[in-house]
Amino acid sequence: MSQKDEFHNIDDPSDGLFRELASGVTTRIFSGEQAMLSVVTLAPHAQGTLHHHPEEQWGVLLDGSAIRVQGDEEIPVKKGDFWRTPGHVPHTMRAGPDGARVLDIFSPPRPEYRKPGSGFGTT
Question: What pTM, to 2 d.p., does this model score?
Fold first, then answer.
């Protein structure tokens, strides 16, 4: 494999493995051996499904605004905010009026995100 195959662009909509997570919520996935990146785009006021999984997840809000739902809390987030979600903690995101774009980082990679499809996977 050429090292060039390991370079990507966060703004290129054709780059990565595409997955539709929910109505108005899509992602492009980039998987390595020990970690996985997911660039999630939420339409204005779109919301993901409350879900959980065993993998640890970090997220950073790249653009827009949103409400991060994690466990029993709802926390407003703005561009540049980032957070950690331990494994098995229920969570989702609700976009603000301009939508949102989030970079999620998983460790280890989520097996269900290694292939195209739809949905969040584990609930």
Answer: 0.92
Q: Which residue has the tokens 């827009």?
A: 64
- Alpha carbon distances (Å) from 97 to 50, 63, 67, 115: 20, 12, 11, 31
Give 73's contacts (C-beta < 8 A, 6+ positions apart). none
Q: Are 63 and 41 in contact (CB under 8 A)?
A: no
For 47-77, write each residue's pLDDT tens digit.
999 999 999 999 999 999 999 999 999 999 9
Q: Is residue 106 exposed (0-12), middle (13-18) or buried (19+ Cβ within 10 Å)?
A: buried
**How far is the C-alpha of 107 from the C-alpha of 61, rounded, in Å?**
18
Nearby residues of 4 by Cβ (< 8 Å), 6 or more positions away: none
